[in-house]
C-alpha cells in the first residue's frame, strides 16, 4: 500500500513542471543577448580599427624590406669592389718583391 501511494505521489510530481522555467528561459535569453552584443562589438572593433592598422603595418614592413634589400645589395657591391682592390694591391706587392 505504501508503495502505491509513493508511486502516485511521484507521478504527481512529474506531472507538474518546474515553476521557474520562464525565469530560466528569460535569464538564458538575457545572457545570450549580452554575449551577442559583446562579440558583435569586438568584431566591429577588429574590422574597423585593427585590420586597417595591420594592413598599414604590412605595407610599411614591405617598404622597409625593399629598402633593406637595396642596402644589402649596395653593401655587397662595395665589399666586392674592396676585395678586388685588395687583390690588385696584393698582386702589385708580390710583383715588387
List the helices and strands and how they pair.
Layout: H1 2-15, H2 21-96
Give me some keywords for this one.
97 residues; mainly alpha; rod-shaped
Entry summary:
The protein is mainly α.
Q: Can you walk me through this structure?
A:
This protein has 97 residues and is mainly α. The chain has one domain. It contains 2 helices and no strands. The chain has helices at residues 2-15, 21-96. It is rod-shaped. The chain starts with a helix and ends with a helix. The relative contact order is 0.04. The mean pLDDT is 87.
Number of strands: 0
What's the Cα radius of gyration? 40 Å
Strand content: under 5%
How many helices does DSSP assign?
2
Q: How far apart are the first and last residues' alpha carbons, in Å?
A: 129 Å
Q: What's the rounded overall pLDDT mean? A: 87
| Helix percentage | over 70%
- Could you give the order of the helices and strands? HH
Structural class: mainly alpha
Shape verdict: rod-shaped
The largest β sheet comes out as: none
Number of domain units:
1
Amino acid at each position: 500500500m505504501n508503495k502505491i501511494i509513493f508511486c502516485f505521489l511521484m507521478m504527481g510530481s512529474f506531472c507538474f513542471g518546474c515553476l521557474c522555467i520562464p525565469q530560466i528561459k528569460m535569464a538564458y535569453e538575457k545572457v545570450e543577448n549580452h554575449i551577442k552584443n559583446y562579440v558583435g562589438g569586438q568584431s566591429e572593433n577588429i574590422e574597423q580599427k585593427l585590420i586597417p592598422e595591420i594592413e598599414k603595418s604590412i605595407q610599411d614592413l614591405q617598404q622597409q624590406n625593399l629598402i633593406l634589400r637595396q642596402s644589402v645589395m649596395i653593401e655587397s657591391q662595395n665589399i666586392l669592389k674592396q676585395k678586388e682592390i685588395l687583390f690588385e694591391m696584393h698582386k702589385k706587392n708580390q710583383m715588387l718583391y
